[in-house]
Amino acid sequence: MTFTAPVLQYALLAPILIVLAGALIGVLIEAFVRSSSRASAQLFVAVATIVIAFAQLVRVRGEGSIAAAMSAVTFDGAGVLLQGSILVIALISLFLIADQDNFTAAAAAVPGSLDEREAHQARVRTTEVFPLTLFAVAGMLLFPVSSDLITLFVALEMLSLPLYLMAGLSRYRRLASQEAALKYFLLGAFSSAFFLFGAAFLYGYSSSLTFAGIEAAVSGGAGNDVFLLLGIAFVSVGLLFKVGAFPFHAWSPDVYQGAPTPVTAFMAAATKVAAFGAILRIFYVSLGSAQSQWRPALVVIAIATMLFGSLVAIAQKDVKRMLAYSSIAHAGFLLSGVIALSKAGLDASIFYLFAYGVATVGGFAIVTLVRDSAGEVTDLNRWSGLGKRSPIVASTFAFFLLAFAGIPMTSGFIGKFSIFSAAYESGNSAILIAGVLSSAIAAFFYIRVIVLMFFKDPVEDGASVVIPSALTTTTIAISATITLVLGIFPAPLINFIASTAVFLR
Question: What's this model's pTM, rounded to 2 decimal places?
Answer without folding.
Answer: 0.92
